[in-house]
Amino acid sequence: MCSSVPAVVEDCQGRGSGRAVVDKVLALARRLGRQQPILQGGVQVTTAPTVHICEKCGFRKVGSQSTAVGICDMIIDLT
């Protein structure tokens, strides 16, 4: 299991940085032989750009947690 909480500072958002981070993380997951990486408890559903980037990269929502900000888990199949 690998844990990481990547984020893009606000001043750098909207320039493809988020997509680049997700692409790098997925490349690492593939090299490590991971088949179904999970973004567990780390995607705020109220942060539409983050959800959008993850969905564009192939992640799908698989669960949510009842919190004040609304957190969801997302998974991708790399097989």
Features:
79 residues; alpha+beta; three-stranded antiparallel beta sheet; 2 helices; 3 strands; 23% strand; globular
Describe the overall structure.
The protein is an alpha+beta fold and 79 residues long. It has helices at 17-31, 48-56; strands spanning 38-44, 60-65, 71-75. It has a 3-stranded antiparallel sheet with strand order 1-3-2, covered by helices on one side. A hairpin with a 5-residue loop joins strand 2 and strand 3.
Task: Describe the SSE topology.
Layout: H1 17-31, E1 38-44, H2 48-56, E2 60-65, E3 71-75
Antiparallel strand pairs: 1-3, 2-3
Distance between the termini: 17 Å
Count of discrete alpha- or pi-helical segments spanning 4 or more residues: 2
Q: Largest sheet, if any?
A: 3 strands, antiparallel
Secondary-structure element order, N to C: HEHEE
Q: Give the helix proportion (percent range).
A: 25-40%
User: Class by helix and strand content?
Assistant: alpha+beta
Describe the global form.
globular
Strand order of the largest sheet: 1-3-2
Low-pLDDT runs of 5+ residues are: none
Radius of gyration: 12 Å
According to DSSP, the number of beta strands is 3
Mean pLDDT: 82
Short description, anyone?
The chain has 79 residues and is an alpha+beta fold. The chain has two helices and three strands; from the N terminus they run αβαββ. It is globular and about 35 Å long.
